[in-house]
Amino acid sequence: MGEFESANVETPEGIKTEMSEDLKEKTSEIENKWVYLSIPIVTIVLAELMIYSGRKLEAMEIYALVLLGLSLSIIYIKNKDIQKTYQSFLLLPLLRLVDFSMPLFYEEKLYNLIFIYCLMAIPVSIAAINQEFTSTQLGITSKKIGLYIPLSVFMGLLLGAGEYIIVGKNPLIQDLSILNLLSLTIIMVLLVSPIEEMIFRSVMQNRLETVLGGRKALIITSILFGLMHSGYGSVYEIFYITLVGAVIGYLFYGTRSLPLVALIHGFMNVFFFGIIPLLL
User: Fold this and answer.
1) DSSP 3-state assignment of 152?
2) Whole-angstrom distance, CA of residue 224 vs CA of residue 241
3) Mean pLDDT, to the nearest integer, of 154-173?
4) Phi and psi for 206 in degrees, rounded to 5?
5) What is the Cα–Cα distance from 106 to 103, expressed in whole angstroms?
6) What is the pLDDT confidence band of residue 28, given thresholds at 50, 70 and 90?
7) Are the beta carbons of 160 and 272 closer than 8 angstroms?
8) Long-range contacts made by residues 113-121, C-beta under 8 angstroms, separation at least 24?
9) Residue 22 confidence (pLDDT) above 90
10) For residue 10, which phi and psi values (nearest 5 degrees)?
11) Residues 23-33: what's their mean pLDDT?
């Protein structure tokens, strides 16, 4: 699959897996594919730069245009790979627009995430089905979950600590009571991170692999993942989350396990938004 030289991937933690033959897809030959891909990527980058500079209204206007443009393009473009790639890109403006326009049901931001990501679960599920990937490609598996749970907690701690060093305190709960910690863990591990990882890894990275190859897919997906954290207003945070996206994306490429990357992402959020800032 793609441009990685070997289908055998050994992670730093010693996880070794062999990609099955059905995942070794050849890169699609599409005329002017970089033209098709660069337009939505550049506009998404522009919108995130607007958010980074504090101009959220302009960012929402750009994202609304991106949403409209991609929707119309899917109708008129005949190439199936480009259609499905645009469909994967559609999820990013949808996520941003839902996030920015969602009214405050609770004073705590944590509980508003329930409404945002439950709503996003609908288009994400539709996109995943329409991509016509197998469950193996999507990473829907419970294989090695007993190993992945403690590994994800450890990696979540390391990655969450790194983000804390860059961003500083940003807790979403008031204290480390059992109820608050349980709420944070359930929302982050079972809702937020599975939806985001389905977007970036199961749908987008998979689709870009078929169009561009593994290495380019990993790079583009990681950059977009990092840029989607521009709201912190820190270029260091964007670079750091891009690196985190590359690590998680590489693990997904090697293991094809959505639970693994979702658990790492989820526990990273638990440590960053709760345990580390409140303990320190």
Assistant:
1) helix
2) 10
3) 95
4) -60, -45
5) 9
6) low
7) yes
8) 113/187, 113/191, 113/192, 114/187, 114/191, 117/191, 117/192, 117/195, 118/191, 120/91, 120/94, 120/95, 120/195, 121/195
9) no
10) -115, 120
11) 66
Q: Is the pLDDT of residue 133 over 90?
A: yes
Q: What does the pLDDT read at residue 58?
A: 95
Would you say 1 and 256 are in contact if contact means Cβ atoms under 8 Å apart?
no
C-beta atoms surrounding 106 within 10 Å: 11
Q: What is the chain's Cα-based Rg?
A: 18
What mean pLDDT is predicted for residues 226-247? 95
Q: Answer whether 218's CB lies under 8 Å from 246's CB.
A: yes
CA triplet 257, 144, 275: central angle to 5 degrees? Answer: 75
Q: pTM surpassing 0.90?
A: no
Contact 160, 276 (CB under 8 A): yes
Q: Is 17 helix (H, G, I), strand (E, B) or coil?
A: strand
Phi, psi at 24, each rounded to 5°: -85, 70
Query: Who has greater pLDDT, 10 or 150?
Result: 150
CA distance 59 to 157: 32
Angle at 219 between CA 50 and CA 89, to 5 degrees: 55
φ, ψ (nearest 5 deg) of residue 222: -65, -40
Gap between the terminal Cα atoms of the chain: 44
At which residue do the structure tokens 């499905």 appear?
Answer: 84
Whether 31 shows a pLDDT value over 80: the answer reads: no
SS3 assignment, position 18: strand
Between the alpha carbon of residue 140 and those of residues 13, 20, 96, 145, 202, the distances in Å are: 21, 15, 25, 11, 9
> Virtual CA dihedral for 135, 253, 232, 268, nearest 10 degrees?
80
CB atoms under 10 Å from CB of 216, counted, come to 17
